[in-house]
Specification:
It comes from Brevibacillus reuszeri. By secondary structure, the protein is α/β, with parallel strands linked by helices. It contains 13 helices and 14 strands.
Length: 413
């Protein structure tokens, strides 16, 4: 959709967002223009350049699935990002700016990602986006942001294609699928001793991209691939494909997709007698997988993640305690990377303000500052962006489910 059309439909979009606010499930709803408290954003104020005078509003948007079956990803990233922003609000007030957060729900839907991106572009106060959380929505939204030089820093969009399209506005602090997939395959062969595997995926950008990388690495390392199939996400009965898989007698089933589908596949395959290893990516990182599959069935489910164990250090444990007591939220899958993504964004914004003589920077100035991020010391990951916007310090980690609990194994080697 072209920029001219954006302005003509904005009023209708916002009105529709009010009607559909709170709708869940897999249905699309229009983006809601608010600042996290449900009220419309006030008009920008003029900056007097001092802490004692009027402050000028600057908005950082946080976008991901906040409702529907993938809401764990967006809501946990938002919680971490909001916590990081609140910690820095006073420092920005001293510079003469009121930093606000604007949360938006893209429902992990590429079309909804475009609608949200167009709304954010039309809001002159928005100078950066933490998100999107999923690959498909990130790719479609990035095409919109690129037209207006609006920078994005994703905590969790792992699809390799995202940073291969030459858009300077795109950045992420997590590892790519070609890293995650290849390291998962190497781990399966070397640490789990897998010699035969059946690979399946959900036909989406994230799931299929991950499965493709696993397939490529297995072929390189001599692991026999007994089948490679796509399934439709959201189905309730995968019996047909499971019967096909079990007939090949694989040691491992690798499914590229999210926990909601993985849980059903695990449950149904176990009920049909499969006792081997299940493996997937960070889309498996949800307690709901265990609820759907059943605790016993989830045993021997292994998955990779771009996020390490937050509580592995004393500093991390303290941060968890502080975060949970301050916010009332539990630390989730992308809370830590939402926090560090916002840290990167705010660091870039501060640098852009300084470079602009203390005045409000343009979107392009913020983009340039974020793109130049080097050796940023995040709480959970260090960040240096290469020319593509990938983080040179990103790593891949391995977890498993055991007796209904997620167990950290270590960095994938």
């Amino acid at each position: 959709m072209k920029k001219q059309k954006t302005l003509s439909i904005l009023a209708a979009t916002v009105a529709l967002g009010t009607v559909l606010a709170g709708c869940g499930g897999g249905q699309s709803s229009a983006p809601q223009q608010n600042n996290g408290g449900g009220s419309a954003a006030p008009a920008p104020q003029q900056n007097s350049g001092g802490a004692g005078g009027a402050t000028e509003k600057l908005v950082i948007a946080v976008v991901g699935p906040m409702s529907g079956q993938y809401s764990d990803y967006g809501s946990t990233a938002k919680a971490g990002a909001e916590y990081a922003l609140k910690e820095k609000q006073e420092a920005f007030k001293q510079l003469g700016f009121d930093i606000q957060l604007l949360a938006q729900d893209d429902q992990a839907d590429p079309k909804q990602g475009v609608a949200v991106a167009q709304m954010l572009i039309s809001n002159a106060d928005v100078v950066g986006v933490v998100g999107h959380a999923t690959t498909g929505a990130s790719i479609t939204a990035a095409a919109q942001y690129d037209q207006e030089k609006l920078v994005m820093v994703s905590p969790s969009a792992t699809g390799s294609d995202l940073t291969e399209q030459g858009k300077k506005i795109v950045h992420r602090i997590c590892a790519r699928d070609d890293q995650q997939g290849s390291k998962a395959a190497v781990y399966a062969k070397n640490q789990l001793g897998i010699k035969t595997a059946f690979i399946m995926h959900d036909k989406a950008a994230y799931g299929q991209g991950l499965a493709d990388e696993v397939k490529k690495q297995f072929e390189k390392d001599g692991v026999q691939i007994l089948g490679y199939e796509g399934v439709t996400a959201g189905e309730k009965d995968y019996s047909a494909i499971i019967n096909q898989i079990l007939a090949t007698k694989p040691e491992m089933i690798y499914f590229g997709g999210y926990y909601s589908d993985a849980g059903i596949i695990v449950k149904q395959a176990r009920e049909k007698g499969f006792k081997g290893v299940f493996m997937g990516g960070d889309g498996y990182d949800s307690a709901d997988l265990v609820k759907i599959a059943g605790a016993d069935n989830a045993n021997n489910v292994v998955f990779t993640s771009t996020v390490g164990d937050v509580g592995a250090t004393e500093e991390g444990k303290k941060w968890i305690t502080d975060f949970e007591s301050s916010t009332g939220n539990k630390v989730g899958i992308f809370t830590s990377f939402g926090y560090d993504s916002m840290g990167v964004m705010l660091n870039g914004l501060e640098e852009a303000i300084k470079a602009n003589g203390g005045k409000k920077p343009s979107r392009e100035q913020v983009l340039d500052a974020v793109h130049k991020t080097k050796d940023f010391k995040g709480k959970f990951v260090n960040v240096t962006f290469n020319d593509k916007g990938d983080n040179e310090f990103a790593s891949v980690y391995v977890y498993k489910y055991e007796n209904g609990q997620k167990v950290y194994i270590g960095e994938a080697k």
